[in-house]
Specification:
The complex is a heterodimer of chains A (372) and B (306).
Chain A lengths: L7 H17 L9 H7 L1 H11 L4 H10 L4 H12 L17 E6 L49 H7 L29 H9 L3 H12 L7 E17 L4 E17 L12 E8 L3 H14 L15 H7 L2 H9 L6 H36 L1
Helix pairs in contact in A: 2-3, 2-4, 3-4, 3-5, 4-5, 7-9, 8-9
Chain B lengths: L22 H16 L5 E2 L13 H10 L5 E6 L6 H13 L3 E2 L8 E5 L12 E5 L13 H9 L4 H14 L10 E3 L3 E3 L9 H4 L5 E6 L4 E5 L5 E3 L26 E5 L6 E5 L2 H9 L11 H8 L1
Parallel strand pairs in B: 2-3, 2-4, 4-5, 5-8
Antiparallel strand pairs in B: 1-9, 6-7, 6-10, 8-9, 11-12
Helix pairs in contact in B: 1-2, 7-8
Amino acid sequence: MYVAVKGGEAAIANAHRLLAARRRGDADVPGLTLDQIAGQLSLAVDRVMGEGSLYDPELAALAIKQARGDLIEAVFLLRAYRTTLPRFGHSEPVDTGAMLVERRISAVYKDLPGGQLLGPTFDYTHRLLDPELAGDEPLDAPEMAADTGERVIRVSDILGDEGLIEDDPATDASRPVADITRTPMEFPMERDARLQTLARGDEGFLLALAYSTQRGYARSHPFAGEIRIGEVDVEVMIPELGFAVVIGRVKLTECQMVNQFKGSTKAPPQFTRGYGLVFGQAERKAMAMSLCDRALRASELGEDIVAPAQDEEFVLSHCDNVQSTGFVEHLKLPHYVDFQAELDLVRRMRAEHFARTEGDTPADGAAREAAE
Amino acid sequence: MTAPMTETNTQNLASYNFAYLDEQTKRMIRRAILKGIAIPGYQVPFASREMPMPYGWGTGGVQVTAAIIGRDDVLKVIDQGADDTTNAVSIRAFFAKTAGVATTTATPDATIIQTRHRIPETPLHAGQVLVYQVPIPEPLRFLEPRETETRKMHALEEYGLMHVKLYEDIARNGRIATTYAYPVKVEGRYVMDPSPTPKFDNPKMHQSEALQLFGAGREKRIYAVPPHTNVVSLDFEDHPFEIQHFTEPCALCGAEQVYLDEVVLDDKGGRMFVCSDTHHCESRRAEGHRGALLGDEPVVEKEAAI
């Protein structure tokens, strides 16, 4: 006698109740506020905004809270909300040269106009756990320099003025700007769509690929030309007005990687670019993105495609963590219908195998005896 | 859970349209569906959206359903043939919540049936739409991983590779070793992945009275088989296509010639086989059919009363 398992609906509801309780944790401990998350876990918020492709620290903080700190789950929450928003248009290209920089470093010049500005960085900290942080000790107010008004020109512009680095690829202004959230991926992919895809790509995946290029899988001799972090104005052209209007500011991390390039049939000897641009303070991601961008320009620059990081379909089809996690985790779903079909086949083939080997046994036995 | 979320949401953080997707998106998806119907078996790229369930969990099917569902539709959702598997429950609840439509488990009563891995045993009738959730829409994907290549192969009707694969199966195993997602040729032109349904279900796709729509969200593809279309499973003259056969009938309703799930009863090798299509099994039991292991417990009476 057998009673079929029922009750998926009640089980799901109960599981979600338990999830809500686990998310909240000990009720005697005050719950996290969105301000606390946005203010004190701001790099997590930045990552979720970047990979979620939605610049909204409050919603990103909410997503992190709801996801119990699982950042990929938080990215997913933000994306699933973002996708329902109407699309009004696109902004003018942001001018990162006019960025109000909080951090700006160059590894290729000792000093340069605008100076090296370390900003809030983990670099040069000693990674020693700080027991004082267990409490809430007051901190010294940070030192702030007066604004000198000096224009912080981009390193790529310094190199570009001398013709030492290739120009930014010319963009055809008459062509509409790609939007990977509104059109399916197509290969080969244009630069705009590629950079969009990388900008929302998984930090870990891009980091590993970028690392692989440094270890000889598509070596590109990179120098960190410049990394800058700060706020830029976002301008939108309003057709009714006939001019662009600033609608707000976003914090960005930009990385210009300068790569060596020994001339080919297509280009004279000059440095080449790899570009990274990400929402918020996300230096590791921006650097990884710029290395991957450079590697993916292989065919454009006439280089042989020999490594995974140069393989456009491979990199761009698999860098989205919301897609990756969904498909990997879908293996949790029931597959017993298909498994039944495989079970049936394997059983039949095993039966045939044993029937065959049993038939062979006497001959085998005779051979063994002869050998002995 | 019962009222649609439209118009009623007062929170400024988020509000959603009927059946979740905005009307622009639905229109885009409907265009892809129409193109798919016009070119049976051809994979139409579409601008798949992020859905509030993960990729790989039916986002393609959900988008297709969301694009075609209206207030008067009656929706049935099955996974592995069953209405009560967790993901089927979740998707059904999603549409009950976001569209407020009527749902059913009865195959003949549904106007839209969203499915994962099975085609119902009850033959579908004209006017019904079967929406398949598709993980990998490209039948050639495991032979050629590159989309740029496979699209060319479809365009040139270059399907030799698939026949070589099936031939190699026979050479190695004495038979075609594909048991699910068994490739079919649609209306003599496109080789199509029927989604990971067992090959047992392939014949049901042929000359079906219902419209069959396939949605692959993560891979951003929609394809279709219009009613009364030829759908032929690939095979060879000396190795004709054949479906699975089960040696025993359903242990609960005694049905034969249906697809069965194997249920492990104990740790001593005890097994039973029951209908994978739960609605089919329940309606047969309601009609008085009895399988060998069907007890007289209340579950049966309750289901018979429904």
